[in-house]
């Protein structure tokens, strides 16, 4: 099955709120890592390198199997 690699960055604020950014979708883990290296030098990202995450996803497959609730 085909796979893609999503590069995310999450910035956690002091009050616990989070700001998630989808940087991009790539055909290989190496391509996602190269993108992380590129954007990781930019303002904001350079101060929070721990916020990066690369996730591997199978194409044409559900990855969320449950409902959700909204908490305000």
The global form is flat
Please state roughly what percent of the residues sit in beta strands, choosing from under 5%, 5-15%, 15-25%, 25-35%, 35-45% or over 45%: 35-45%
Spatial arrangement of strands, main beta sheet: 2-1-3
Q: H/E order of the elements?
A: EEHE
How much helical structure, as a percent, in the residues?
10-25%
| Alpha-carbon distance between the two ends | 38 Å
Total beta-strand segments: 3
Rg, alpha carbons: 14 Å
Question: Total helix count?
Answer: 1
| Count of domain modules | 1
- Runs in which pLDDT lies below 50 for 5 or more consecutive residues are none
Q: Could you give a short account of the major beta sheet? A: 3 strands, antiparallel
Which structural class should the secondary elements be placed in? alpha+beta
Mean pLDDT: 95
Note down, in words, how this protein is organized.
It contains one helix and three strands. The chain has one domain (3-58). The chain has one helix at residues 29-39, and strands spanning 3-12, 18-26, 52-58. The longest helix has 11 residues, at 29-39. The chain is α+β, with helices and mostly antiparallel strands and 72 residues long. The model has no long low-confidence stretch (mean pLDDT 95). It is 15% helix and 36% strand. It has a three-stranded antiparallel beta sheet with strand order 2-1-3, with helices on one face. It is flat.
